[in-house]
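Input (structure):
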């Protein structure tokens, strides 16, 4: 339950990054390098769940770097993307707030559904 409570905090961080990117005037990225919005939604769900798992491990172990690297490598590999692709795509969507808003809305909806399913068990 504690792990799912951290999700809103992470979402706030992503939202603040979005606003900073809009103000920074970053140049457009070639759309061929950008992860599709559907895949980005799925990837962000996995990233947030990974972050939650890492934070849970940090409470039990003192080796955060090991688990962070291990879990994120697995998350990106299982989604068929590199960290660089994720980072470029995150920059792109953060500078396109309408698209990012839709993606984050879908992420929140999916995580809320997961949480309700867990709560009902």
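Output (sequence):
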């Amino acid at each position: 339950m504690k792990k799912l409570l951290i999700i809103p905090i992470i979402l706030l961080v992503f939202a603040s990054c979005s606003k900073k990117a809009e103000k920074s005037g970053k140049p457009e990225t070639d759309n061929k390098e950008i992860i599709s919005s559907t895949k980005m939604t799925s990837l962000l769900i996995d990233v947030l769940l990974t972050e939650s798992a890492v934070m849970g491990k940090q409470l039990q172990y003192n080796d955060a770097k090991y688990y962070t690297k291990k879990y994120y490598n697995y998350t990106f590999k299982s989604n068929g993307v590199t960290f660089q692709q994720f980072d470029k795509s995150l920059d792109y969507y953060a500078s396109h707030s309408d698209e990012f808003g839709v993606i984050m809305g879908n992420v929140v909806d999916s995580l809320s559904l997961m949480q309700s399913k867990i709560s009902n068990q």
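Notes: The CA atoms of residues 42 and 107 lie 8 Å apart. The radius of gyration is 15 Å.
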